[in-house]
Amino acid sequence: MGIKDLAHPFPSGKQSMEDGIARYCSAPMPPLREDEGAMRPAHTALLAGAAAALIAPWLVQPAIGWRDGPEFVDTSWGLGIAHPAGFPLYQALAWPFDMLPLGDIALRNHLFNAITSLLAFLLLHQAAATFLHSIHRGGEAIHSWSAAAIALVWLLMPAQMENAIQSEAYPLFACFAFLLLRLLLDHLRSGERHRYLLAAFLAGIGAGDHAMLGAFLFPLILALIPSRRNALPARLATAAAGILAGIAGLTIYLYLPVRSRNDPTIDWGDTERWSNFWHHVTDRKDSALHPSVADLAPWNAGAWLQPLHQIGDNLLGWYGPVAAILMLYGWLEAAITRPRITAVTLSWLLFLLFFFHDWPGGTVLTAPLGVLPFGLAITAWRLVRPWRNGRARAIAILLLLLAPLIHILPQTRSFFAQRSDYAAGEFTRSQLLALPYRSILLTVPDWFPARFLIDVEGLRPDLSVININAIYYPGAIEPLSPERMPRIILPRAAPPARRSASERISRFVTANIDQSPIYVDGDSATFATFGPYLDVDDADLLWNRLQRTTTHNRCSLLYRRTMRTVHHLTRERNALRDPEFAQALQYGYHNRIAMAVTHTPACLEEATSMSRWWLRHIPDPDSRWAPSLDNTLGIAALARGARAQAELLFRRAAASGLPAAIRNLKRLHRSRVQ
Q1: What is the per-residue DSSP string for 559-627?
Q2: Contact (CB, 8 A) for 184 and 134
Q3: Residue 467's beta-bridge partner residues?
């Protein structure tokens, strides 16, 4: 080829030029050299952050919920120690928010989670933009906008919303995961050693929020595979320095023995002793440092298929079938064209998705599942690559990336409309207010709201709330001691095995029953553990938690024993005449009645009895709960086949403007016409 040919690659005129452009557009994506930079417009991140901030008011839950949220509020406010692996970084970072002069302690802590969710949104945007630029050169602006779309889809997912509205460790975990991914991708691009060392150090510190961040050990190792730029000796030196940096970050766990020595209100595990400390930080179920591989033997094909099936369920549940297929195609193409970058990006999340399939989708795996749409962006770019109009290509890519919102937004709307976490605090408050003086409350499920109300709000300090596990399994929750429970007589020796739990609990009850009324908050499974020592008919059973199993003659959602207990509790100083107490009690208990009506006939009978009881005892006939209870009674009547009675109840509730009753009345009329 001569000089003229080099200067004019399309010598035959316009047609040849068009043919050349067509060949270029249909060619495979050119690989990115590792020494090329990635410039992304900063204004895209700012606009994306501003859009996410508009969602912030919807993220903050104003009251405590169920699950671990109240525990995190309690341990951060009192600088205590949470369940394994302790979450020291979460306590240290959330504590300054608890000191803000804004609302109550729970709202301040939830504000910390909302802010970390927004920060994770921005970090996911940066990680996605860096990854997309590493896969395909050029188009920095569209890569940045694509990353913003990916981050927005992630932020609006119901599971992520559930993490953001309450106190949980997973939004902060997502922040560290996305930041580490960005640093490692930058290290692969530039080869700069300080980026790798910073990633190793932050991985150690981030493990102080959740030990699942240990999954980043895989991308940290893969990032050190020798390349032409760095020979093996240089990589080994970087690896040694990275190990030291990671160990330096892990020193955050020294928080546990230091704080345990000061006996905070929640001192889970008594970690001031080395044996307890090691057991606490390596507990498999909660800290995720001991994944069980015994069931994943090569000859056990079913055990290997189960995680794959769960991963598929997660993809379909989060994004829908079409988006899931397009994501997988994009990741396959990335693995072929850029295997090293793809391996670094996918290794940590595949480890978590595979080995923790028993924690289905939900709130635990929001960070790994937030990275999967990177594959959708690659597919979108491939589909529109032949188009000549750059603006049309950009719009098409964004529309395809935002398409999963069609599947996600209805779930998010339903999540906000149906969640009843706000009932946790008031429901538990009603329990504590109704208990006699200096009572002992033994509880298995949902004991954190009670601890929060006693430790943080100072409600009923005369009560002793104990998780039953702490009695027969010292170290599982917190070791009971006379210093922490001065009003309780404790059995001397811990049982050597779980089979002696009933004996230990029996000794505990015998030693304390004369000086303190003992109440048990649990279900039939709780009492099955105790054997003959705590019979259901002899113990003071508070409200039974929702269980979706039933027997032939009893609804485990609503025991008849519950009614007798409520009658007993309301004797104390006409508690129901206190409007605040009555409202709290009704608000917490009505949710359980409403859920019970969807179950077996035994549940319908129990729900009907309880609803009628509440209607008789509501102090104010115009209470806003009366229409709700009428609607509940109508649902139960309709399920029993009593259509006339159901219509009467729906009409009475609809007359008060209750939307649910109006809808039920319309459905009843439509079914009659049909």
Answers
A1: -HHHHHHHHHHTTGGGGGGSHHHHHHHHHHHHHHHHHHTTS-HHHHHHHHHHHHHHHHH-S-TT-THHH
A2: no
A3: 443
Is residue 466 helix, strand or coil?
Answer: strand
Cα–Cα distance between 478 and 496 in angstroms, integer? 17
Q: Which two tokens stand for residue 264?
A: 């905070």
Residue of 158, 172, 259 lying closest to 213 (CA atoms)? 172
Question: How many beta carbons lie within 10 A of that of residue 186, not counting itself?
Answer: 21
Both tokens of 503, joined, read 């004996």
Give me the amino acid identity at 643: R
* Angle, CA 612 vertex, CA 609 and CA 613 arms, to 5°: 85
Q: In what order do the strands lie in the sheet containing 464-467?
A: 464-467, 440-443, 518-521, 540-541
pLDDT along the chain (674 residues), means of 10: 41 47 44 38 61 64 77 89 88 90 84 88 91 80 85 85 83 94 91 90 91 87 74 82 92 91 81 82 54 41 59 74 88 90 88 62 75 90 78 83 84 64 70 73 74 84 74 50 60 47 65 73 51 38 32 42 41 48 50 53 64 62 68 78 87 84 85 70
**Percentage helix, strand, coil, to 5, in the chain?**
65, 5, 30
- 374-384 helix and 321-337 helix, angle to the nearest 10 degrees: 80
Q: Which among 213, 235, 212 is positioned nearest to 223, based on CA atoms?
A: 235
- For residue 214, what are the contacts with CB-CB under 8 A and spacing of at least 6? 203, 207, 288, 289
At residue 370, the 3 state secondary structure works out as: helix
**Burial classification of residue 620, based on how many CB atoms lie within 10 Å of its CB (0-12 exposed, 13-18 middle, 19 or more buried):** exposed
Residues 6+ apart with CB under 8 A from 83: 68, 71, 268, 286, 477
Q: For residues 367 and 405, give the distance between their C-alpha atoms in angstroms, rounded to a whole number.
A: 17
DSSP 8-state symbol, 442:
E
Q: Quick check: helix, strand or coil at residue 465?
A: strand
Using DSSP's 3-state secondary structure scheme, residue 440 falls into: strand
Instruction: Tell me the three-class secondary structure of 177-239, residue by residue.
Output: HHHHHHHHHHHHHHCCHHHHHHHHHHHHHHCCCCHHHHHHHHHHHHCCCCCCCCCHHHHHHHH
| CB-CB contact of 10 with 17 (8 Å) | yes
How are beta strands 440-443 and 518-521 bridged, if at all? parallel
Q: Which helix (H) or strand (E) holds 146?
A: helix 140-155
Residue 302, both tokens:
């079913």
| Strand runs labelled E in 514-573 | 518-521, 540-541
- Contact call for residues 55 and 158 (beta carbons, < 8 A): no
The predicted model scores a pTM of: 0.70
Q: Of 83, 122, 310, which Cα lies nearest the Cα of 210?
A: 83
For residue 469, count other CB atoms closer than 10 A to its CB.
17
